[in-house]
Write a structure and sequence with these properties.
398 residues; alpha/beta; six-stranded parallel beta sheet; three-stranded antiparallel beta sheet; 17 helices; 38% helix
């Protein structure tokens, strides 16, 4: 039986957000019990709603980042709409926005201005490159920031750099914004004051680039692009199996190489062969190392290879597809899947990574239709029905 509430129960968040970075941050807050009111444009809403129709007619990005929220459709270009949002913010604990640089300030929704007016408010500005500097007003889509941060330069093969297959810059910024809100809530609990929080996509992804960055800055060379291989460890790569699968294995030290040679490769003499006995030698002769491992795994199915590698204590994994992840036995065994309601019916979704064993499950409420909660929330603000009708007829709300 649950003994504690969700940690953010009673916290209200208002978000003027779009795409991934801010919606991903506020979804984490909603999962942990916060009430999140999402402000959207009446003419289409968050543009991520239109990215695709893969989730049974809904956009997969939107489904991923927006469960547990209430949608209010308000035209911020209209003074009446702005006034409604400012009234919502006045009663909130947290405000989050990731509008284009300068747009929030023009609307009176920048973090510094809001916090000056509401000392207990925590207000988060998420931007591409930060509020100042020569890049401040540049467009900052995820792929562009991956390039600016150097991530693309270390990802891919020797012949061709590639971007990450997920929006790494958006996710990084979203998670730092989420962490920033939690830290600011703790500080407010001791000081009684909120304050502004700033997060940029470039800053967030540059932090994630810490290992190659420090390597290069302090005398090393940039890591080589090696596909699935590791630049300084061998064997560390994916190898084909008889059933068309791929198995990745990683030998981290020479003791593990000995176990691999004796128990999987069937070549115990390689444990002491100077051409293979040390990681330095195996990296120098990577082609020969990979050939020996590939020859041993080629006759096996992926399942057989994993059993042998596990038995030998060698780190290994199957190279799964996204469809394989959706049916991953570990996620199923740990009961990580839940059903989330949406405008198209129930959709399968993963529990968030942070759970609290002594409390209730994370809150995974429905994915809202555009403007689904406009009337209910404006009624809470005391806006009478006839005024709501007038605002809707004027296109100020939807």
């Amino acid at each position: 039986m649950s003994t504690q509430p969700l940690p953010l129960e009673g916290v209200t968040v208002v978000a003027v957000e779009q795409a991934v970075a801010a919606p991903f941050a506020t979804r984490q807050l909603a999962d942990l019990g916060a009430r999140v009111v999402k402000i959207e444009r009446p003419d289409g809403g968050d543009f991520a709603r239109g990215y695709d129709t893969a989730a049974r007619g809904l956009a997969s990005h939107f489904v991923w980042c927006n469960r547990g929220k209430e949608s209010v459709a308000v035209d911020l270009k209209d003074g009446r709409g702005r006034e409604l949002v400012h009234r919502l913010v006045a009663g909130a604990d947290v405000f989050v926005q990731n509008l284009a640089q300068g747009a929030a300030a023009r609307l009176g929704l920048d973090a510094a201005g809001l916090c000056a007016a509401h000392p207990r408010l925590i207000a988060v500005d998420i931007s591409g490159y930060g509020p100042g500097g020569p890049y401040a007003h540049r467009r900052a889509y995820d792929m562009l920031v991956q390039c600016e941060a150097g991530l693309v330069s270390v990802t891919g093969t020797e012949e061709r750099p590639v971007k990450s297959g997920i929006p790494a810059a958006d996710i990084a910024a979203g998670m730092y914004a989420y962490a920033g809100v939690l830290a600011a809530l703790v500080r407010r609990g001791t000081t009684g004051r909120g304050g502004p929080v700033e997060v940029s996509l470039l800053d967030a992804l540059a932090e994630w680039m810490g290992h190659p960055l420090h390597h290069v800055m302090h005398g090393g060379t940039a890591p080589a692009r090696t596909g699935l291989a590791h630049a300084v460890i061998a064997p560390y790569d994916a190898y084909p199996t008889a059933d068309g699968g791929m198995v990745l294995l990683s030998v981290q030290n020479d003791r593990e190489w000995r176990r691999l040679a004796e128990q999987v490769l069937g070549r115990p003499e390689l444990a002491d062969d100077p051409a293979f006995a040390t990681n330095t030698a195996r990296v120098a002769g990577r082609a020969a190392t990979d050939a020996v491992v590939a020859a041993a795994l080629a006759p096996l199915t992926a399942a057989e290879a994993l059993v042998r590698l596990d038995a030998a204590g060698v780190a290994c994994a199957r190279l799964n597809t996204v469809a394989d992840l959706a049916e991953h036995p570990q996620l199923g065994a740990r009961d990580r899947w839940r059903s989330v309601d949406s405008p198209v019916g129930p959709l399968r979704s993963l529990l968030p990574p942070v759970t609290f064993p002594d409390g209730p499950e994370p809150r995974m409420d429905r994915i809202p239709a555009l403007g689904q909660d406009t009337d209910a929330i404006l009624e809470e603000l005391g806006v009478p029905a006839h005024e709501r009708v007038s605002l809707r007829e004027a296109g100020v709300i939807a």
